Amino acid sequence: MPNKHLLSLLLFLSFTYGAYTQCTNIVDLNTWIQEGSPVTGSWVVNPAGSSVIQTINYFGLNAKPTYFVSPDSFINVKISGTIRVNANGYDDDWIGFVFGYHNPSGLPDSNNHDLWLFDWKKDSQTLYGFFANEGMALAHIQGNIPNNSYSQYFYAHTNDPIFNVVGTNYGTGTGWVHNTNYDFTLVYTATRAIIMIDNDTIFDVVDCFEPGRFGFYNHSQAEVVYSNFSYELITNYEVLTPVVCPGDTAKFLFEDVSCGGLGQGSANITSWTWNFGDGFTSNQTNPNHIYNTSGLFNVEMIVTDNIGCIDTVVKQILVLPVPDVDLGADTTICIGDTLSLDGDAGFPFATYLWQNNSMDSTFEVTGPGTYWVEATSVCGMDRDSIDVSYLGPPTNVNLGADTTLCFGAILGLDATSPLATYLWHNGSNNATVSIDAPGTYYVTVTNICGSGSDSIDVSYIGPPTTFSLGNDTTFCIGGGLALDVTQPNVSYLWQDNTTNPVYNITSSGTYYATVSNICGQETDTIQVTVLNPPSPVNFGDDTTLCDAASLLLDATQLNVEYLWHDNTVNPTFTVTQPGTYSVVVSNICGQEGDTINVSYENSPLIVSLGNDTTLCEATSLLLNASQAGNVSYLWQDNSTDPTFNVAAAGTYQVTVSNICGSETDDINIGIQTAPLPFTLGSDTMLCNGVIMLLNATQAGVSYQWQDNSSEPTFTVDGPGIYMVTVANDCGQESSAIAVDYIAPPQQVFLGSDTSVCEGVPFILDPKQPGMNYSWQDGSDSSTYVVTETGIYRVMVSNQCGEESGSIDVSFRPGPDPILFAADTIICDEEELFLDVTSNAAGITYTWQDGSRLPTYTIKTPGVYQVMVENDCGLESGEIQVSFSDCDCTVFLANAFSPNGDGINDFFRVSYDCDIQMSNLIIFNQWGKIVFQSNDINAEWDGTSKGKALPEGAYTYFFTYTGMELDQQLNVPMKGSIVLIR
Q1: Does the pLDDT of residue 387 top 90, yes or no?
Q2: CA distance 683 to 489
Q3: Which of 20, 16, 21 is nearest to 314 (CA)?
Q4: Which pLDDT band holds residue 346 (cuts at 50, 70, 90)?
C-alpha cells in the first residue's frame, strides 16, 4: 500500500504559484494594422490608442471579413478587453477577434488564410441561400477561400478542412445585444486556448497552437467598439520529476515538445532564469539539474518576453534520502518474552517488507529465527537482519536411558545446554563426565531461565560363550532336527532372521546361528539334506510315430537310481521301433515307475482342389480336401474344416496334415460382376444444329440401343428419347435420356429513341421470355426502369447465342422554381419588373390577372402571383409589393453595346438617392454568374475572366439598401439585359 507520508507530501508538491506582470503600458492600437482580402473595413483608433471602432456595415460593398491586428506575434498570453456594439449600428452580424493570425497578407488577390477565429452573431439569418446561426463559434481556418465562397464559410460557417469549426455555442439568447459591454478574455498557449465572455468559459480547446498575431474581427457589422485592451505574459512549466533521489537528474519542461518541438511555445520568450533552490541556476528553456542532498526545494522560473513583460512561476521538488535500516545485534531471550523490531529508523517515506511479507514499519518477534526487513523508496533499498534465539529453562536435561556396558567400556555423559552451568554427582561443574564403573549418576543444569536435573543407572556384562550346531546330516522328508543355542544375556539370529534360541529343521539347506550381545558374538553352521521319495514318472499316453521317427523317454531325477525293462540303468531311453517300454526309479525313501506303448504310421495322401475357375458375382463354389485317417486341415484363412465355400475372387489354399507330414494345394478363382449401373446424363436441351455423343462403354459387356444398334456409343442429332441396355452373363443395366432442341435469341428492339417527363419512370422490356438479361449497369432483370437521361443497352442471351439492343432516352424538365425576392417596398413612380422565363419546353404562364407573358411589370401595390407549367409540372410564386412616397430612383438599362465606340459601352446602375449597400449579379442563359460586384458604381464591359462574352440575353439580380424619408429601403430587382456587339 502507498506510504501515507509520501502521499501527503506529493499532494503538497502539486501547489504552484506565479506572479504575472501586466504590460498594458505597451499597447498602442495606433500601431495596429487593418487587413483583409481586400481591405474593406473602416477602423478608427482614438487618439490615445486605447480603443478602435469599426464604423461601416459593408456587406453590400464587399462580402468579405475585415481584421485589425497587432504588429507582434503572441504566444503564452492572457489577452483581455471589451467589445460593444452601439445601437446606431442597426445590423445583426458577426463580431469577434482572431489569434494565431498569419494570412491573408492584405494583397488584393490573396485568399490564403491561416488563423483562429472567434466570432459572435446577434441573430439567426438566411442570405443568398446560406443560413447563419445566432451565437458564438470558434474555427481554425487554413487554406484558400475562393472569392465566391466567403458567404459559405465566414457567414454560414460551413465546416470542412479549410474552415474547421472547432466549437459552437448556438441557440436562442446566445447572440450579442446592442449597447452592451462584453468583457472578453483569451488565454493562449502552445497547447491550449481558453475563451471567456464576462468570466464565463465559452470554449476551452486543447490543440497545438502556433505563435501569431492577435486582432479584432468584423463581418458586415457597423459601430463595433473594441477597448480596454490588456496583455499579460502567462507561462507555466512542468516538473517532470517531482520526486527524485540524490544524484538523479531532475527534469523541468517549459515547452511541450508534442506540439512541434522547441520554438513554437517559446517564440515570444527572450530569456529564462531558473533558480533550483540549492544554490544553482540555469538559463535553458527545458533544463535538467542534479541534486546532491535530500530536502524540499523551491524551483523558481523567471521568464521575459520580447516586449519586456516578466512572469515568475515557483514550484517545489522533493529530493528523498536513501533508506538506512538497523535492527541491532543478534540476541537471545527467554521463551514467552517478545522483542520489538523497528525498520523505520527515522525514514518515513519508504515501504517495508519483512521476512513474512508484512509491510508495517515495525515487527514483534515471538519466536526464534532470522528476521529481516527491506526498506524501499524511489531512491533505493536497504536491508538488515537479526538472529533471535529463544532460551527456556533446562527442563529437558536427558542423560539417556539406563544402560549396560561391556567390561572395560567407558561411557561419556553430556548435559550441554546453551548459556548454562552444571553440578554433577561428584561435584564436577563440567558439561560432560566419563563413566567406567557400574552405578547411579546424576546432574543439575542451570541457566537464566531456570534449572533441570536427570540421572542414569549403568551396569557391565561380558561377551557370549562358544557353541556348536553339530555335524552335517541327512534324513527323509517327514523327519526333523531341533538345534538349541540357549545362553543367558544374549540375542539370537538364525539364517532366516528368526530370533528364538531353538530352531526346528524340516527341509534341506544350510543353517547357521549367531549369538550376540553388546560385548560380542559367536556363529556356527550345519548342512542338512532332506530326501524326498522319487517323483512319479510319466511318459505320457501311448503314442504313434511316423516312419523312421524316434522317441526319447526321460526319467531323470536327483538322488535316485534307474532300472529299465531291458535292465539298463541310464536316466533316459531312445525308442526306434514299436513295443512296450518301462522304468523303475528308487532311493532310500521309496520308488516310482511308468510304462508306454509305441506304434508307427505312414505320411498323408496327395491333395487336389481342381483347376482355376471364374464365378459370377453372388454365386459360390465348395472346395473339398477330405481324406481318410487321423488328419487335420488348414485353409488360407486358418479355418480347419475339410471343405471351404468360396464366394469372392482370390487364391484359395489348403494344407492337409497328420503327425507324419502335410500336403498343400491352391486354386485361383475370379469373379465376374454384372454390368455397372450408369447414366446417359440428365435430360438436356441443345441448340439447333448441335449433335451430342452418348457413351455407355464398359468392359466385357454387349450393348442394345433403342434402334437395336450394338455400338458402345450413339450420336444424337435430333429431339427424342434415347435408351441403351448393357449386358453380360451375370446381368444387365439400362439408362435413358430425353433430348430437346431450342433456338437462339431474336433480335432485340427496345423501341425508338424517346423523351419523357422528369420524375416519370420509363420501363424498357425486350419481351423475350426465358432468356438471360444484362443491362448497361450490370443488372439482370427482364425489365429496366429508366429515371434519368442516357443511352440504355441490354444483351439478351441463352446457351445458343446472344443479341443486344439500345435506346436513347431523354427527360424533359418541368418549369424552373419561382425564386421571387422577399416582399419589398419601392418608391412611387418606380416599376418592379418580374421575369419568370423558364428554359423548359412547352411552358405556359398565368399571372393573377390572367396575363400569359413570362414577364410582368408592377406599377401598383398589391400581391402578385404567377403559375408556370408545362406537360411535366407546375411551379408558382407570390410577392407583395408596397410603394413609398420617396425620391430614390434606381434605373438599369435593358441593353448595351460594348464595342468600344464610346457610346453605351458599359452596363451600370443609375441612381439619385443615398444607397448604403448594393449587390449586382449577372447570369448567362445557363444560370452561371459572369459578373458580380458590391460597388454601386461598378460597370460591366460584357466580359468574364478577361474574355468577351457572346451577344444575347443575360439576367441580372440587383439589391440595394438605402434611406428615404426616414424609412429604410431594402429593394430587390430582377431583369434582362441584351448584350449587342
Answers
A1: yes
A2: 116
A3: 16
A4: low
Query: 609 Cβ partners below 8 Å, 6+ apart?
Result: 623, 625, 652, 654, 665, 666, 667
Contacts of 281 (CB under 8 A, 6+ apart): 273, 274, 275
DSSP 152: I
481-491 per-residue burial string, b: 16 or more CB within 10 A, e: under 16: bebebeeeebe
Largest CA distance in the chain: 177
Residue recorded with cell 529508523: 345
How do residues 929-940 score in pLDDT, each as one tens digit?
899 998 888 899
The candidate with the shortest Cα–Cα distance to 279, out of 266, 267, 290, is 290
Burial of 119 (0-12, 13-18, 19+ CB in 10 A): buried
How far apart (Å, rounded) are the C-alpha atoms in residues 414 and 423?
A: 12
Its pTM stands at: 0.40
pLDDT of 150: 78
For residue 11, give the H/E element and its range: helix 4-13
Length of the chain: 981
Place of cell 478363382: 669
Dihedrals phi, psi of 537, to nearest 5 degrees: -100, 135
Q: Which residues are paired to 715 by β-bridges?
A: 693
- SS3 at position 150: helix
Give ∠ CA 507-509-512 in degrees, rounded to 5.
115
Q: Which stretches within 857-974 are classed as H helix?
A: none
Q: Is residue 527 a contact partner of residue 472, using CB atoms and an 8 Å limit?
A: yes
Other Cβ atoms within 10 Å of 836 Cβ, number: 24
User: pLDDT tens digits, residue range 564-621?
Assistant: 999 999 999 999 888 999 999 998 888 999 999 988 776 666 788 888 888 888 788 8
- Reading phi first (left if > 0) and then psi (alpha if -120 to 50, else beta), residue 327 is in alpha
Least confident range from 104-118, 537-551, 885-899, 960-974: namely 960-974
**Cβ atoms within 10 Å of 461's Cβ, excluding its own:** 16
Q: Could you count the other beta carbons within 10 Å of the beta carbon of residue 852? A: 8
Inter-CA distances, 499 with 470, 496, 523, 526, Å: 19, 9, 14, 17
Residues sharing a CB contact under 8 Å with residue 926, sequence separation 6 or more, in sequence order: none
Give the CA count within 13 Å in the CB-facing half-sphere of 815.
22
Report residue 793 CA to chain centroid gap: 48
3-state DSSP of 636-685 = CCCCCCCEEEECCCEEEEEEEEECCEEEEEEEEEEEECCCCCCCCCCCEE
Separation of alpha carbons 913 and 917, rounded Å = 12
Cα dist. 815→100, 355, 788, 853, 928 in Å?
Answer: 50, 95, 17, 14, 18
Q: Of 477, 501, 478, 504, nearest to 489 (Cα)?
A: 501
CA atoms of 302 and 80, how far apart (whole Å) = 23
User: What is the C-alpha to C-alpha distance for residues 634 and 639, in angstroms, rounded to an integer?
Assistant: 6
888 by Cβ neighbours in 10 Å (0-12 / 13-18 / 19+) ranks as buried
Nearest residue to 154 via CA among 169, 137, 166, 171: 137
Q: Determine the 3-state secondary structure of 270 from DSSP.
A: strand
C-alpha of 441 from chain center? 84
What is residue 202's three-state secondary structure?
Answer: strand
d(CA 379, CA 736): 96
Q: What is the separation of C-alpha 437 from the centre of its chain, rounded to a whole number of angstroms? A: 89
Contact assessment for residue 839 and residue 784, using Cβ atoms and an 8 Å cutoff: no
Q: Which residue reads 534360541 in cell numbers? A: 501
pLDDT at 7: 36
Beta-bridge partners for 224? 54, 85
Is the pLDDT reported for residue 61 higher than 50? no
User: Does 821 have pLDDT greater than 70?
Assistant: no
Cell of 645: 465355400
